[in-house]
Amino acid sequence: MGDVLSTHLDDSRRQYIAEKTGKILKDFFRFYEDQYGVALFNSMRYEIEGTGGPQAQLLWRKVPLDERVIFSGNLFQYLEDSKKWRNRFSLVPHNYGLVLYENKAAYERQIPPRAIINSAGYKILTSMDHYLELVGNSLPGPAPKSGAAPILKCPTQYPLILWHPYSRHYYFCVMTEPEQEKWLAVFQDCVRHCNNGIPEDSKVEGPAFTDAIRMYRQSKEQYGTWELLCGNEVQILSNLVMEELGPELKSVISPRMKGKPQERQRQWIQISDAVYRMVYEQTQAHFEAMATKCVMARPAMESVIRTDMDQIITSKEHLASKIRAFILPKAEVCVRNHVQPYIPSILEALMIPTSQGFTEVRDVFFKEVTDMNLNVINEGGIDKLGEYMEKLSQLAYHPVKMQSCYEKMDQLKLEGLQQRFDVSSASVFKQRAQIHMREQMDNAVYTFETLLHQELGKGPTKEELCKSIQRILERVLKKYDYDSSTVRKKFFREALLQITIPFLLKKLAPTCKSELPRFQELIFEDFARFILVENTYEEVVLQTVMKDIMQAVKEAAVQRKHNLYRDSMVMHNSDPNLHLLAEGVPIDWGEEYSSGSPGEADLSAEKRRRAKQVVSVIHDDEAGLPYEPCPEMLSPGGPEKEPIPYPASPDSVTELRGLLVKELQVESPQSVAEPLTNGTSPRESPQPLEAEGEKSLRQQASPLNHTHHESAPTIPSEEAVSPPATPIRRLPSEEEADSDHSKPSDKETGEEVSGQGGNPYVQTTTEDSTGVQTEF
């Protein structure tokens, strides 16, 4: 690798890369400084004038679930330097940075991890053919001959590849299809979270940065959505530089690369990764300097804005009126002929998968709460409630359980519209909708937690608790229906604007953009940092199409399409006391409602530690780690035992409702109850409850039974992932490695340690997820 880099990235070429990067960043920072003043003014104006949208009915979690482990387990990783596959213990903490340890023992002994991977901008591939196609398209020249050895061979049929257009690739594999599906859901959640790297609560820096990116790309005649607007600011800027620098280097370096096509592909991956690291380091230093400069200038700008707010607003409105008079006739014709006819079809394409995903969120939440209620009835009531609620509190962060919601967005297709409106990919809309789904699920769960915790203060009996859970569930679902409608309508409006506005700007640019400089004289010099002609022009264009977009979304709500509420249905302060409950101390279910004797303190601590993991390990400790034999497998001459099947969990709302009603109406304490959904036997038969509980359950057969007649779709059952009941399986490369009786060194793996020591559950996993790959 060193020879390849020293040959193609000598000192003169490195100097060229640094100069080119510096020039691109300098051009971008001019846009950023301009947008920073505009964003600051808009933020301060909104604080004074903004009324906001409809009030949310659900509570939101102010203290996030940190110090949680999302997932952990073993999988094989391919090490490019040694060309061997090694078993790695992998862990995903709450910040979604994939942490790789030598093995589980190294993790438990607090040995620093081999690597921490930030997956922003990556694609997760499960097909080796798809990966080889992407690699082949990345480098010009002759393609490998048919039947030629590929650049990588996977020893199993279940690969998991992290592919990035510029950075290094990561190769993993597992032994079974269920494991692959589970890891795929986890990796996709990591990518989804890391792509959303700019904080939502950044009211000035965030909008200034994204607007500067858009303005910079439009100055290069690049309109439309950008697929690589993912990660934190430094990662996005690095992608921006590589988008321009990469093709230049490829055209210069590619003709000088020697060897077979496969070898040339390997070399280019190494070269591209090395260039990306150089660009990233330079970008990080420059961006930090620019951010500091803007922060230093902010107090003076805020002082001017506070003093002259009214005059700035008047000056901006005067400028907008002049620009509107100039472009409005052209813009209206363009909207009428090229945009208006397509708005209904775009909206329908967005509504169907998005609404199905939110309906699935509702059904998953209903199923989980109903399962918990069944278990409370049959397993000792409040004594077990803390354990169940701690698991329920993590539902929104459970990649596998949420996967059925997220995968609804895979149906989003914009073919035909993508080419017309210059939409490079629908992934930006898919991921945004999926993030909204996770937020609404967490809001519903947190609201349920808060109301249930209040109810428990009354000291209910088991039967009273069951009825309370159902009553609270119905109450939360009504709030969810209202909030999900509000969130979806806002998402549809934003998506339609994101699709149509770049198209309109591109259409109007030849006749309008050259005339904009003459409007600069209408802006007072003292206000020039807060009013920009280009921004005002875009706002005017936005207003020309906004009326049609608002009308289309309103008509969809009036027709009750996809459970959307009308705008006239407002629930302001419908539950004022609820928001007061959210001001209290966060609920610690495991601590407050834990069961067990003092002599079981150590066991309870270990149990609580494992409970903090959102998704269970692929193979629990008692069953043996992946690719390690269970004790039963190691016993010589032992007879093979068939695994005991667990009762299947009911997977439809109707089955769940019927099961719960059946449990509540048991008349004889000696009667045998139905098997529980978690495969346990009931300890005690419940007392009969009033028919009111059955009535409340019937009312939840449809998401909005009072507004439409569609029944709720059935919930697909979650497949249980169990350890493979086969003897230990080892890869050939591991057998060779065992003969060496030595662990791979950092030099061999080509990875660097991210930190030194620390608590494995906190300090080694709380690396800021917005940072780029730690092994840089």
Keywords:
54% helix; PH-like_dom_sf; Niban_1/2/3_dom; transcription coactivator activity; Niban-like protein 1; mainly alpha; globular; 23 helices; 776 residues; Niban-like; disordered C terminus; seven-stranded antiparallel sheet
Describe the protein's architecture and organization:
This protein is mainly alpha-helical. It has a domain at 346-511 and 575-590. 54% of the residues lie in helices and 5% in strands. It contains 23 helices and seven strands. The protein has helices at residues 2-8, 11-49, 104-108, 128-137, 177-195, 205-219, 233-253, 261-339, 343-378, 382-392, 399-406, 417-421, 427-456, 462-512, 533-558, 576-581, 589-592, 601-611, 631-634, 653-664, 691-698, 732-740, 746-749; strands spanning 69-79, 84-93, 98-101, 115-117, 123-125, 158-163, 170-174. The protein has a seven-stranded antiparallel β-sheet with strand order 4-3-2-1-7-6-5, sandwiched between helices. Helix 2 (11-49) runs parallel beside helix 8, helix 7 (233-253) packs across helix 8 (261-339) and helix 9 runs antiparallel to helix 10. The protein is globular and about 75 Å long. The relative contact order is 0.14. The model is unreliable at 597-603, 617-653 and 662-776 (pLDDT under 50).
Number of continuous helical runs: 23
Helix content: 40-55%
Class from secondary-structure proportions: mainly alpha
User: Spatial order of the strands in the main sheet?
Assistant: 4-3-2-1-7-6-5
Radius of gyration: 29 Å
Query: What overall form do the CA principal axes indicate?
Result: globular
Order of helices and strands: HHEEEHEEHEEHHHHHHHHHHHHHHHHHHH
Biased composition (Basic and acidic residues): 739-750
Pfam families: Niban2 (PF26086), PH_Niban2 (PF26089)
Region (Disordered): 620-652, 666-776
GO molecular function, one term: transcription coactivator activity
